Amino acid sequence: MTLLAVERIKLFSTRSPWWCMLLALGLTVGLSGLIAGESSDQFPLTIGGTQAGYQFGLMVIMVMAALAITTEYRFGTIRTTFQALPPRWAVLAAKTAVVAVVSGLVGEATAFASWGMAKAVRPSADLALRHANDWRTVAGVGLVYATGAVLAVGVGTLVRQTAGAVSILLVWALLVENLVGLIPKIGTDVRKWMPFNAANHFLTSGQASLGTGGAQQTPMPYGPWGGLGYFAGVAVAVLIVAVVTAERRDA
């Protein structure tokens, strides 16, 4: 518990986490309000549409998570921490747990705030959370944010440089996974196994396409919870590799 408290204090001792959380909230809620305002009878607002901005918030949260570890390497504070507590895996596990919990809470806040904003802007839209799919689309955002934070800490531990870690995370999520789908013959099948695509499947499966009334989804080889499990598996695997690497090399 002491180690968790230390990591919590270190996380919130700088301004960057606060700015990241506010930015994630502002981006997702703002985009939800814009989509709700532009919806019409021809393009009705859906529950999936209220969460259209979750990916922007996820990118910001992963930047925050990466900063939590790369900043320590930049200023050398990680050396002091490792000297005070030689089992490096315990330090990294505590840091990951704190960042994941904070990210998950931010994800839940942004998801329900986005849903509430859309409902306030377009009160006539049917946005009631009646079914399990509806709750998964909204409440599941927190799980995706928490898992994304675990992945970001792992990448940050491996790279140890803020610019490099952030570049890898953003380029992979926003560019590489989309470009993979353009590879002739195998691109579509390969893209189904991309981690962020799996996370998106978890949130959107069973929902109408974002901002439209009709469902237009690519069949996936796993169900929605399987998508989250796969995303989590990739994140944990990267974190394990990062912990093993941190144990073997100089801080």
Concise structural overview:
The protein is mostly helical.
* Secondary structure: helix percent: over 70%
Which structural class fits the helix and strand makeup?
mainly alpha
Contiguous uncertain segments of 5+ residues: 209-216
**Main β-sheet description:** none
Overall shape: it is globular
Tell me the domain tally.
Answer: 1
Helix and strand pattern:
HHHHHHHHHHH
Separation of termini? 24 Å
Number of strands: 0
What percent of residues are in strands? under 5%
Give me the Rg, rounded: 19 Å
Average pLDDT works out at 90
What is the tally of helical segments?
Answer: 11
Protein name: ABC transporter permease
Organism: Gandjariella thermophila
Keywords: Membrane, Transmembrane, Transmembrane helix
Task: Characterise this structure.
Keywords: Membrane, Transmembrane, Transmembrane helix. The chain crosses the membrane at residues 18-36, 56-75, 96-118, 138-159, 166-187, 228-246. There is one protein chain. The chain is mainly alpha-helical and 251 residues long. The chain has helices at 2-12, 16-38, 47-50, 54-75, 77-84, 88-121, 132-159, 162-180, 187-191, 195-204, 224-248. It is built from eleven helices and no strands. Helix 2 (16-38) packs antiparallel against helix 4 (54-75), helix 4 packs antiparallel against helix 6 and helix 7 (132-159) packs antiparallel against helix 10 (195-204). The radius of gyration is 19 Å and the shape is globular.
